[in-house]
Amino acid sequence: QGRYGSYDAWNIQGAVNLPLGEVGALRVAGSVTGGGAFVKDFFTADEYGDLDQKSIRATLRLAPGGGALTNTTIVQYTDEDGTNTPYELWSVNPQPCVSAADFTTAHCLLNAATNPGLTAILAARPAVFQGGLAAAVAKQREVGPWVSLSSYPPYHKASNTYVINTTELEVGSDVKLKNVFGWNKAKSDDG
Hints:
The protein contains 3 helices and 10 strands, in the order βββββββαααβββ. The chain is mostly beta strands. The longest helix is centred in the C-terminal third of the chain and has 11 residues, at 133-143.
């Protein structure tokens, strides 16, 4: 099955069931997802918010000897790449920059009038917004929420592998023994 939507977002899924006679069954399923970027970078015109995801799952169910004993194992692996949606400045809390403690606030640090070093920092980084914090908020409101002034690529990389095994044994009409084992390994790197 497949889907296609806004911002070139798409998804394809499929599955195959393989009977294993009287012993059990195997099912293998997969999914691939892509597209979906909807925020543009003000400086580079790159697009953010996209997803490139691939996932595969195998389920093996064994029921030897008529079904009093069943064992089901599920293994899944998912790999994700793409970009996050970046933060956006939408408001600032201006305060007087008078005392030493005031100069630790974003409003005072990111203001060329109160922090002369900001001009030198910005000059060394031409690919970032060249105004102070209040000017960045005004520009963000001007360009709207679907354009980012954040000046960095908000990447996303992740992978996840898990295994779940369930064993059930019916020892009588009212008694069932059940053991569930699970293992998971997940990694994520976001910027």
